[in-house]
Specification:
- By secondary structure, the chain is of the alpha/beta class.
- The strands form 4 sheets. Strands 12-11-10-13-14-15-16-17 form an 8-stranded mixed beta sheet, sandwiched between helices.
- It is globular and about 80 Å long.
- The structure holds (2S,3S)-3-hydroxy-2-methylbutanoyl-COA.
- (2S,3S)-3-hydroxy-2-methylbutanoyl-COA (T1G) binds near residues 36, 79, 124 and 149.
Length: about 725
Amino acid sequence: MATILEEERQTAQGAPVRMEIRDGLAVVTLNDPARPVNVISEGMLREMGEILERLENGEGGVRAAVIVSAKKGTWIAGADIEEFKNFAAPADAEAASRAGQEMLDRLEQLRIPVVAAIDGAALGGGLETALACTYRIATDSPKTKLGLPEVQLGIIPGAGGTARLPRLIGLRAALDLMLTGKQLDARRAMKAGIVDEVVPQTVLLEVASRQAMALAAKKLQPRAARRSGSPERLENLLPMRKLIFSKARQGVMEKTHGLYPAPLRLLKVIEAGLDKDVRAAQEMEARAFGELAVTPEARSLVHVFFTSTEAKNDVGLGDDVKPKSVDQIAVVGAGFMGAGIAAASAENGIRVRLKDVKPEAAAKGLRTARESLIKRAKRKKMRRFEVTKLVDRVQPTTEYSGFHASDVVVEAVFEDLSLKHRVIKEIEEHAGEGVVLGSNTSTIPITKLAEASARPDHVIGLHFFSPVEKMPLVEIITHEGTADWVTATAHAYAKKIGKTPIVVHDSPGFYVNRILSPYMAEAALLLQEGVRMEELDRAMTEWGFPVGPVTLYDEVGLDVAQKAGKIMAEAFADRMGNPPTVIDKMVADGRLGRKNSKGFYTFGEDGKKQGPDEAVYALIGNPPKKETPRAELQERLGLIMVNEAVRTLEEGVLRSARDGDVGAVFGIGFPPFRGGPFWYVDVTGAQTVLDRLRALEQRFGARYRPAKLLEEMARDGRKFFPDAA
Ligand code: T1G
C-alpha cells in the first residue's frame, strides 16, 4: 500500500485526483501536480465529482474508500484562495460555496464508509471534506494540522463546516475553533472529538485501509456514532445556548471592535442553523459566505495571506544563491530578546548556545527561554521526554565555547555601538569562517556594525520584534556589502523558526521603525496639543491597531523610544527634526513605562496597566482640553505612517510594496483588514490619500509632505497591486 503513495509522489502529473480499486477497497489519492499543496479548486471539484460518480455506481464492487494525499505536508489546504479573486459579486462566491457543499453532501451520502487518512494540513475546505467522511485518522506528524481558519480570510467556512462541526464536537468547542481559526495537531484534534485515531505516518494507509473494511463489515463504529445524540446536552438548553452566543459575541467585539464582519456573521449563521438539518443550515452558510467573500475586509485579508506566503517563499535572489542549512546557532546576550530568539529556535529543532557575561544573567536567560518552551509544550500536550529533549536544546554559557559549530550567531546585547563592535570581534575570534553574523539591533545601522567585522559580508541585521514568541515578523537588513548567501541563509533561518521574513536595505530605523517613528512622534505631539491619552489610544484601536500609540510607548519603553526618536530626528531632520518634548520630560521624570511601572498609564502590583496617570498632563504642561474628532486623530496618525511607508519604497529601503504590507501588518500590527499601507493606498485611491496629505501639510507642515512616489502614482493612476479593487 505505502508504495502506492511513493509511486504517486514520484509521478505527480496529470489528474490531481486518482482512484484505484482493489479487493473492494477504493484508494483515492490527492496530488495536485500544479501546486505545492492540494487545494479544492474548480478543477479538483470536477475531478472529485467523477470519482464520486464511480463510487455511487459501486464500480469494481467497491465496499469502502480511503482518501489519502500523496503530497508531503498537506492533505487538503482548503479551497483555492487564488480563485477568490474571481468573485465579482456575492452570487459568484455563493455559487462556489454551494458547489463545495454539494460535493461534500454526496461524499457524506455515499452508501459505503469513507476514511479520511490525514497526513499534513487539513484546513478550511480540507477539514470540511474530512468532516463529511465516516471516519478520520490523522498522523502524529508536526505538519498535521486541522482547523477552520476562514475568519482569518474575512469569510466563514462555506462547505458545510458551520453545520457539521458543532454537531460533531459540540457548540462551544466548535465556536472556539471557528472564531479563532486555531489549528490543532492530531492529538488535540482527537481529544476534541474531530479525529477518531492518531497513527504514525508509516502505517497511515495500512491502518486506514483496514479500518475502512472494518467499517464496511460493521465491525467498527466511528466515535461520533458511539456518542448518543449530540454531545454536551447542556449546551442545547436554550438559556445556556443564548449565554454561549452572547459571550462569544462579546468576545468578538472586545477583540475586533466590530471591524471584522466575518466572526459576527459566523455566530448568526451557526445560531440560526443549530436546530435545522444540515442542508437547511448550509443554505444560510452559502449566502453569508457569498456576501462576506466580496467585502473589502476579505479582499484585504486574502491579500495579507498571499503577500505573507510569498514573502516567506521568496528571498528575492537568483536560484543559484544557496542558503547554508542552520542546525546550530549561538545567541550573545541572554536578555528578554536573546532568550526569546533562543526559545523560538529551539522550538523548531535548532540547538542553541545562549551566552551572557555573568553566570546569573545566562541562567536567567535560560530560565526565560525554558519557561516559554514549557508553556508552549504544555499547550501542545507534549510528552515529558519530548519536553526534556526540547528544553535541552538551549545550553547556557559565559564562554565562546561551542561557537565554532554555529551556523548563525545572533548578537542581542544592549543597544550600544562600541559594545556591539567588541562583541562582533569576540564572536569572530571563536566562530567558524562560514558563520552568519546577525544583529538584533533595532536602531544602529548595519553598515556601522559591519565596520568592526573582519568579514563584513557576513554581517546582516536580524531584527526580531517583542515578544519574540508572539511577533511573526523578522526584518532582515542587508548593508551594501552583505553577501547574497548570507541574506539567503538569514531568510531560510527565519522561515525555519516559523517567522515571516522581509528583506530591507540598511537605513536609519530600517523599515518597520522608520514608519512607526513619525506615527509615535505625532501621537506625542497630539498629547502636547491637549488630546487625552486614552482618546488617542481608542482612536487607533478603533482604526484597527491592537493597541494605541500611548500604550505602545509604555510597552516599548520611553527610554528606547527617546533613543530611536533622536536617531530618526537626526536622519530625517526635514520632516522629523522637531521631535516632541514630552518623551524627554517623561524620561527625565523617571517614567520608562511598563518596565518600571511608571509611564503614561499607571500599573498595578501585578504589572497590569490600569488607567491614565493624570500627573503626566502636568508634566506635559498642557492640561487635556482639546476634543479632536476621532476621525481626525486616525487620519493624522494613519496617513503619516502610510506616507512614510511609500517613501521607504521610493528610496529603495523596501524592495517591494508586498514586503511593506507584510512588515507593517506582522511587525507593528497595522490593521490586517486594511491590508497594509500600500494596499490601503490602492483601495483608498492614491489621489485621495495625496489630497488628504496635502491638506494636513497645509495645517501641520513638512512632516506631512507627500512622498514623490505617491504623487506619481496619483498622477498616473497607478496601483501598487494590480488586483486591488
Ligand atoms: N489556496 C491557494 N494557494 C494556497 C493555499 C490555498 N488554500 N494554501 C497554500 N497555498 C499556496 C501558497 O500561497 C504558496 O504559494 C504555496 O501554496 C505553499 O504555501 C470552503 C472557502 C497549507 C499550512 O486558509 O495555511 O477553505 O508562494 O508557503 O508553509 O470553507 O499554506 O509557493 O506560490 O504557506 O507548507 C482555508 C491556507 C481556505 C490554509 C502550508 N485554508 N494555507 O504551509 O506552505 S478557505 C487556509 C496555509 C476555505 C472553505 C473555505 C498554508 C499551509 P507560493 P506555504 P507551508
